[in-house]
Write a structure and sequence with these properties.
The structure is a single chain. The chain has one helix at about 55-65, and strands at about 5-10, 20, 30, 30-35, 55, 80, 95, 100-105. With about 120 residues, it is mainly beta. It has one domain: M1 Pyruvate Kinase, Domain 3.
């Protein structure tokens, strides 16, 4: 794994999970991705959680274990392949695509709505 990852998929939803893939480009502001929303704004979204990022490799490892998860299921806006997640720290900035720079702020809180993507349902 490296510090250079590749965007595998961009995902949005009108609220809740799974977030579904978007073809092409999407506009991102401090309010989030165009066309994306969260059902629980107390725990998700806001200026410190504008984007949620998740690992394609973790998703694929969970699939190999038999979990019915897929990119976007965990509520991530950007599914990324090839990134060394262990090397990331708060305050670090990531370039995503050609025009976006995002700063790592806080880890996403686990959400009970993700239970269907796991065999043991958490």
């Amino acid at each position: 794994m490296s510090k250079v990852g590749m965007v595998h998929q961009i995902n949005v939803s009108g609220g809740g999970v799974p977030k579904l893939p978007v073809a092409g480009r999407v506009y991102v502001s401090s309010d989030g991705l165009d066309g994306d929303d969260q059902d629980d704004k107390r725990h998700h979204g806001g200026p410190l959680q504008t984007l949620c990022l998740y690992s394609l490799e973790v998703t694929e490892a969970l699939q190999r274990e038999g979990h019915p998860i897929s990119p976007g299921s965990a509520g991530e806006n950007v599914t990324i392949a090839g990134l060394d997640w262990a090397s990331l720290a708060r305050g670090q900035r990531l370039r995503i695509g050609e025009d976006l720079v995002a700063e790592i702020t806080v880890p996403a809180a686990p959400c009970a709505k993700n239970a269907p993507w796991f065999i043991d349902r958490y």
